[in-house]
TrEMBL record:
GO terms for cellular component: membrane. This is Palmitoyltransferase. The keyword tRNA processing does not apply. The lineage of its organism: Eukaryota, Sar, Stramenopiles, Ochrophyta, Bacillariophyta. The keyword Oxidoreductase does not apply. Residues 1-32 are annotated as: Disordered. It catalyses: L-cysteinyl-[protein] + hexadecanoyl-CoA = S-hexadecanoyl-L-cysteinyl-[protein] + CoA. Keywords: Acyltransferase, Membrane, Transferase, Transmembrane, Transmembrane helix. It comes from Fistulifera solaris.
């Protein structure tokens, strides 16, 4: 039995504690109660096997439509899913980062808005240059096509990172049952939000919210990077990294190895390629360092802000965090879904976000009772 004064460092013990489903350690709770989410917008119940059967067009449609209609709801009992309606607040087509806004987007940071636009301008510029090179015969058409597809994927991930709620903690947030029963866990409040502050969350002054598992606020994305949008951010980094490597290899090969006449660019194109080479080198260095940064955070469970705090207080050696399971970043989809900027379906929304809400606890209780009464509906128990 653990006491608050003797936090365990035993990995398997801590792992076992975390593997316990929420509410399972509550003696009055039903034996298996899990929450599933779809779209990172609230908990949704789903039978994992059936949620995986959704077709690609359906998944893409859901990913696109939840950007603008996060409160589409289907609460009939025959559905595999239900959505949390943000504590039953009516949804409005408004933009912002507070609880009443329907579409998540940071509006109050001009620097972030400009920097996010610069990303689009630079990516568009590089894609146009590659297309022009292909049109003049300087590079193969297939290479330009590949580059354009990669750029489009990177920009789609950029949009999803910017418009996805990174894991804002609502005013009604409460600790999960597992957290309440964890003796060595100190629960805290945010003095600015006046609400429960989940472990590993931080208050972002730009978003003006507490963000679950916040890594950092990225001005290039004009958004925080947290539990809700880490997948999109990782994909953006990977696609941009591949783009920069592709262009650098292409230009390097052209410069050093291609002696044909077609490889000689026009004067204008030569200048464009020179600028793009510099941009690609910068993008390569920046995304490489960010990918290593994010990988370190995933493998150690210590995000950028936590790492800086621990280094400042010299407490890195005493860190007891576990690595973040990939299912808590990419959802429970099979690996080939991970490469598309679709919203992840988390295996357990509350555990990923680090908090629950009274409404969610109540609804899960009701769903469980429904599934007890009617075994053909709801969750498998
Ligand atoms: Zn806060
Ligand atoms: Zn932020």
């Amino acid at each position: 039995m653990m006491t608050p004064s003797s936090p365990t460092n035993d990995y398997s013990t801590r792992q076992r504690q975390r593997q316990d489903l929420p509410y399972r350690d509550d003696p009055n709770a039903p034996p298996r109660l899990e929450s599933y989410t779809f779209g990172g917008l609230g908990p949704l119940h789903a039978l994992p096997e059936k949620s995986k059967q959704l077709s690609l067009p359906k998944r893409l449609w859901n990913a696109a439509s939840t950007c603008c209609q996060p409160h589409l709801n289907n609460n009939d009992n025959t559905s595999y899913y239900y959505t949390d309606t943000f504590n039953d607040l009516p949804w409005t087509c408004s933009i912002g980062t507070s609880d009443e806004h329907g579409i998540w987007l940071n509006r109050y940071d001009p620097a972030g808005t400009i920097m996010a636009l610069i990303v689009w301008i630079l990516m568009g510029y590089s894609s146009l240059t590659m297309t022009w090179l292909a049109a003049t015969g300087g590079i193969p058409v297939s290479l330009a096509l590949l580059y354009t597809v990669l750029t489009a994927l990177a920009l789609a991930c950029h949009v999803k990172t910017s418009l996805t709620d990174p894991g804002a903690v609502p005013p009604s947030a409460v600790p999960t049952a597992a957290q309440r029963h964890q003796a060595d866990l100190k629960l805290s409040m945010c003095s600015q939000c006046q609400t429960f502050k989940p472990p590993h969350s931080h208050h972002c002054r730009i978003c003006n919210r507490c963000i679950s598992r916040m890594d950092h606020h990225c001005p290039w994305m004009n958004n925080c990077i947290g539990a809700g949008n880490l997948k999109h951010f990782v994909l953006f980094l990977v696609y941009t990294w591949i783009c920069s490597v592709t262009s650098l290899l292409t230009f390097g090969w052209n410069y050093f190895f291609c002696a044909e006449e077609a490889c000689v660019f026009t004067v204008v194109l030569t200048q464009l390629v020179r600028v793009m080479t510099l941009l690609s080198i910068g993008a390569f260095l920046f995304t490489s360092s960010m990918i290593m940064n994010v990988l370190y955070g995933i493998l150690t469970g210590i995000g950028t802000i936590d790492r800086l705090k621990k280094k400042a207080t010299n407490t890195m050696d005493t860190a007891v965090e576990d690595s973040i399971p990939l299912a808590h970043i990419f959802g429970q989809d099979p690996w080939y879904w991970w490469w598309l900027p679709t919203d992840p379906q988390f295996p357990d929304y509350d555990r990923v976000m680090g908090f629950s809400t009274p409404q969610r606890l109540l609804r899960e209780q009701m769903l469980w009772q429904q599934s007890e009464d009617s075994p053909s509906h709801g969750m498998s128990v």
